[in-house]
Amino acid sequence: MEFGLLQVWEGGWIGAILRGATVTVMLGIASILLGAIVGTLCGTAKWLRLFPFTLLVDVYTSIVRGVPELLVIYLLFFSSVEFMAKVAAAFGYGGLEGNAYAFVVAVVAITAISGAYSTEVVRGALQSIPPGQIEAARALGISSGRIFRRIILPQMLRIAIPGMNNVWQTTIKDTALVSVVGLQELMRVAFVGAGSTRQPLIFYTIAFVVYLLITLVSQSGIDWLEARLQGRRRAAR
After folding, report:
1. Three-state secondary structure string covering 210-230
2. How far is CA 139 from CA 70, 107, 130, 145, 150, in A?
3. Cβ-based neighbour number of residue 83 at 10 Å
4. How far is the CA of 88 from the CAs of 8, 73, 80, 91, in angstroms?
5. How many whole angstroms separate alpha carbon 76 and alpha carbon 105?
6. Cα distance between residue 82 and residue 96, in whole Å
7. How far apart are CA 204 and CA 90, in angstroms?
8. How far apart are CA 153 and CA 36, in angstroms?
């Protein structure tokens, strides 16, 4: 075990693991933010029953939530990688599909996945807002924009945080799936290190600890945000 840890340290794998963890966090943050935007737009469309957008959103969420996440990544990557390789080569950027493009596809794929689940979280949060509050505001002549900013949005955020927390935790774990497209994130680095040093237990244990740290730290931040919003709600009363 000591020899294995020495191999990890002297082989420069600690730096590689940290870089992989950075890619994982960047990928997770980009995907959850874009997914939240997608979820807000789609969830609002479902809440308002905007036809035909409601139908399109239902098709999107049903497809994405009805197939394995890994299959979504495979379909998006292998359906476009050849085309993008030709475009990159035409402009003198050969090999682009194996580097930056892998990150772009990973963000798009995980955004699509997190967006589908965020849609239902946002829709549920909006439906939890008492309609009487909105009707009363309209009766007082308050503009639609102000109703959204002062009544709908604050309550939606407070109600949606627990559900979005679950989406975030799932998103971080889904980043491990993009190792199949060659992106050097945490799981990919652990896989390569395990194969190179023949110390799979050590590398996968390190990956386990790093993933756990990421989720625990982010959980603490989300708990703080939720408590802060709850405190503002009590102060407003």
Report:
1. HHHHHHHHHHHHHHHHHHHHH
2. 49, 43, 15, 15, 15
3. 10
4. 36, 21, 12, 5
5. 7
6. 11
7. 40
8. 14
Class at the top of the CATH hierarchy for domain 2-236 = mainly alpha
Q: Where are the domains of the chain?
A: 2-236
Residue 186: name the closest of 218, 208, 215 by CA.
208
Q: Which residue has the tokens 């340290």?
A: 9
Task: Indicate the SS3 state at residue 93.
Answer: coil
Question: Do 47 and 39 form a contact (C-beta atoms < 8 A)?
Answer: no
pLDDT in tens, 81-134: 666 656 555 555 555 555 677 888 889 999 999 999 999 999 999 999 888 888
**C-alpha to C-alpha distances, 100 to 81, 85, 190, 202, nearest whole angstrom:** 12, 12, 20, 29
Q: Residue 65 pLDDT > 80, yes or no?
A: yes
Burial class (CB in 10 A: 0-12, 13-18, 19+), 32: buried
